[in-house]
Design brief:
2 copies of one chain form a homodimer.
Chain A (H helix, E strand, L loop, with lengths): L1 E5 L8 H10 L3 E4 L10 H10 L12 E4 L2 E4 L1 H11 L7 H25 L12 H29 L15 H16 L1 H7 L4 H11 L2 H8 L21
Parallel strand pairs in A: 1-2
Antiparallel strand pairs in A: 1-3, 3-4
Chain lengths: 243, 243
């Protein structure tokens, strides 16, 4: 099966959670918008899907996964679909729901991270909402981030008896990939604060390392296809917020 | 099967999306925190679940559905679980994913509605973030709300050939229930703006009416168990934002 991923070029964004799953799962895929426009890629390729009026079940926004003629959207939904097919989720119903539940909690977490720099939404540039960003970030770093990290560390601790460093059972799942990505993003956005925050979260630190040491993930990072974090992205580094 | 729902008392909140599904599906359930504390209800019942240290797969936050000894959390995840069991979702995989995709887009929408009054998050009272709320709401009402409503109206239009007023195929799904709830919430929060916004959205208006006219939903509303919208809730009415 050949997959086609539609996601905004130039950023990791929500697309990266899908890319990590495709890479770890050894899937064949085309990152459509990375292709030159002349070859059917770029932003126009995405707009074409979003603006098409002949799609019976249209997506609202990227990321969008095209499988044959089918279009599947919404990050956790795409991962739910890929999980079973790429061996990145348990096969029993309760295990699948638990993995998905974790993914939705990871979504809550990275949305709150996005809101630290864009509390007033995408409609205003960061520079237009700096005071609001400072206040939101203060609460996030003091209250919300510790709550999320404490929760995920506990999930890892509870799953320790299964032997692995993973969140669900004895095998890596897509939730582990997404969690490692969020940890990497937090470290980019808040290098100073996150150094302290991860000091007493040994299981999250270990999860990050073991994910990025996986042969296929390491190969993907080394390939140059994984973009660098940058300040147009979901995770952004503003030194004035990192305190 | 007897279900137990754990959700904060006194508000509809995210719990209401689950309640509407349980009611329409004719499920037997206990709304645990509505019970008096002396009978094991109230906020303490929720805290007991959140603070328990003997749960192998702990929830992060309500709503939480207890089924036998199982705990399932995250609103779209609970609906995914209930959808098949209560006849509120298609039985084929693609139909289930499409319904879930719509639910996740509805989630995006009601989160943005929540952010209109709490752009800086739960950590500050509305009164502490009024200027930020005004700016966020301005962008929401001008740009985001029309985008979401236009999308959902289009989904209904595309599904017209199936004969029903529904979003997915020929039968009501949990996404229809959630969509109707969001429409009701928008009308409560923004009575003036939403009157204009729904003027040219006949299919969304019809969906709202047909959902709240369903015998079981009408019975639920008439029972007094459905709480009134209020300003401690997800949808809040601040006249200064409704313009």
């Amino acid at each position: 099966m050949m997959y086609q991923l539609y996601y905004w070029p130039g950023i990791q964004g929500r697309g990266e959670f899908i890319r990590l799953a495709l890479e770890e799962g050894g899937a064949r895929y085309v990152d459509v918008a990375v292709l030159p426009e002349a070859k059917g890629g770029g932003v126009p390729a995405i707009l074409q899907v979003l603006e098409a009026r002949n799609i019976q079940r249209p997506p609202f926004a990227p990321p969008i996964l095209k499988v044959g003629a089918k279009l599947i959207a919404q990050t956790p939904n795409i991962l739910l679909y890929l999980g079973g097919r790429l061996g990145l989720a348990p096969t029993d119903e309760l295990g699948r729901l638990w993995t998905h539940q974790l993914q939705l909690t990871i979504l809550d977490f990275y949305l709150e991270i996005f809101h630290t720099h864009h509390p007033l939404g995408d409609g205003y540039a960061y520079e237009e909402q700096k005071p609001a960003a400072k206040r939101r970030t203060k609460d996030f770093l003091a209250v919300r981030m510790p709550k999320f990290l404490g929760y995920f560390e506990r999930v890892l601790e509870l799953n320790r008896a299964r032997g692995g460093p993973w969140m669900v059972g004895a095998r890596l799942s897509y939730a582990d990939l997404s969690m490692a990505q969020v940890i990497a993003g937090l470290r980019y956005a808040f290098p100073s604060v996150s150094r302290r925050a991860f000091r007493n979260r040994p299981r999250l630190r270990a999860l990050h390392d073991v994910v990025f040491d996986r042969p296929r993930i390491a190969h993907y990072v080394a390939s140059g296809r994984r973009l660098a974090f940058n300040n147009e992205d979901l995770f952004r580094h503003y030194p004035e917020l990192d305190r």
